[in-house]
Design a protein that fits this description.
This protein is of the alpha/beta class. The protein has 3 domains: about 10-175, Molybdenum Cofactor Biosythetic Enzyme, Chain A (3-Layer(aba) Sandwich); about 185-255, Alpha-Beta Plaits; about 260-425, Maf protein. Helix content is about 40%, strand content about 20%.
Length: about 425
């Protein structure tokens, strides 16, 4: 595999990607990790579970590329074809690989599962293939050289691919004798849009250094700002840019790397020895779900209440019936009582309460779809704010859950200034 102008191509496999049932995030993950070595992806192709087409495409790639990374098709089912295709392209038979068998045995034993014939399919690999360790899943990765092209086969499950890429990238760096100089500093933000952030940076930092590449990745609910450098000499400039962004965006920056709002909130709760409870209506338990996805969340999160109907708001959280009758479920008065009720029942230090109209129906002239009231704080200081986020139902729930977590984050940090989105999303 030559080092100069390395030709890297990606082959993504699976009918589920072609049909749109699965969104391809893996190629972006692979490209980002290769970018750490300043290696770009020359070509990317997605092919369904079709033996002739896969064989044709992989043959062509092996003839033109230095490195091909195949993603998908390593599982135990009949439509997992990668090992078969690579063996055919390389002109070698499939054979049972002892390391793959040992991996399967250990994987099954750890989970108290029976190693069946379907699983054993994952140990049938092209003759001469070397194992690429999969620390998470049952299917090992494997690689084989076809002519002058190195082919690395990886699983399609993102949670399995991610840790495998650590070893693949490190091995590439060693083989190419290329230091991992490209460094990407990722800042996670909430409450900023791409265009707003770009305009502020353009206006306030007109002398942005060329050595630091600025990039954005919009998402829901967070937006990522990326500061990329290609060599160690630019690290000081990268850090200066990071400091300038901190001054510009301050409390809208959640943290670095892959930090989420839920992670940051739990970190702050842990630092203070405090606990949080949630009282949710329109978000249906999404805030609690995001918190409990974080390992160790039980230290700071003890209870969540999903009180969708008015009757349950009253019977579970103690929201007064006359409050509901007079003001309606989507009101400041109701979310304040929801928060206080949750604090009392969970014996927690802080609470988030939300009640809104997620749509597409249920709105009115006074309270259109997208209207929500959020309450947050402790027993002595419950704050509340009404917002209007008129977006599709699932996105509405995502953004409101994030806003609730963001307000607790801010109160734990002692931030008194209101976030930008309060002004943008205020009830008219």
């Amino acid at each position: 595999m030559r080092d100069s102008e390395l030709n890297v191509q990606l082959l993504l496999t699976g009918n589920e990607i072609m049909s749109g049932d699965t969104v391809d995030s893996n190629s972006a993950m692979i490209a980002q990790r290769l970018g750490e070595l300043a290696i770009g992806v020359y070509r990317k192709v997605t092919v369904g579970d079709d033996v002739p087409l896969l064989t044709q495409e992989l043959t062509a790639m092996c003839a033109s590329a230095d490195l091909v990374i195949v993603n998908g098709g390593l599982g135990p089912t009949i439509d997992d074809l990668t090992a078969e295709i690579l063996a055919a392209v390389a002109g070698v038979p499939l054979q049972e690989h002892p390391e793959a068998v040992a991996h399967l045995q250990q994987w099954c034993a750890k989970r108290n599962l029976h190693l069946n014939a379907a699983n054993m399919k994952q140990a049938m690999l092209p003759a001469g293939a070397a194992i690429v360790d999969n620390p998470v899943g049952s299917a090992v990765g494997f690689e084989l050289t076809v002519g002058t092209c190195r082919v690395i086969c990886t699983p399609g499950v993102p949670g399995e691919l991610r840790p495998m890429l650590d070893g693949i990238v490190a091995d590439l760096a060693a083989k190419l004798q290329r230091p991992m100089e490209r460094n990407i500093l990722r800042l996670q933000t909430f409450g900023l849009g791409e265009s707003t952030a770009q305009q502020i940076i353009t206006d306030k930092i007109p002398d942005w250094p060329q050595a630091v590449e600025l990039g954005f990745r919009a998402g829901a609910p967070q937006m990522e700002i990326k500061l990329s450098i290609s060599n160690a000499a630019a690290r000081d400039a990268q850090q200066r840019c990071r400091d300038q962004l901190q001054q510009l965006f301050g409390d809208h920056i959640i943290g670095e790397g892959d930090t989420t709002l839920a992670q940051r909130v739990l970190e702050l709760l842990r630092e203070r020895g405090a606990t949080l409870t949630t009282a949710e209506s329109c978000t249906g338990g999404l805030i609690a779900s995001q918190l409990t996805r974080v390992p160790g969340s039980s230290e700071g999160f003890h209870a969540g209440f999903v009180t969708y109907s008015n009757a349950i708001k009253h019977s579970v959280l103690g929201v007064r019936e006359d409050t509901l009758a007079e003001h309606g479920a989507v009101s400041e008065e109701v979310v304040r009582e929801m928060a206080l009720g949750a604090l009392e029942r969970a014996s927690a230090d802080y609470a988030i309460a939300v009640s809104g109209i997620a749509g597409p129906d249920g709105g009115s002239a006074e309270k259109p779809v997208g209207t929500v009231w959020i309450a947050w704080g402790d027993r002595d200081n419950i704050r509340a704010r009404g917002l209007c986020w008129p977006v599709e139902r699932t996105l509405f729930q995502t953004m409101i859950a994030a806003a609730g977590l963001d307000m607790i984050r801010r109160i734990l940090l002692g931030v008194e200034e209101e976030p930008r989105y309060f002004g943008q999303r205020r009830i008219r």
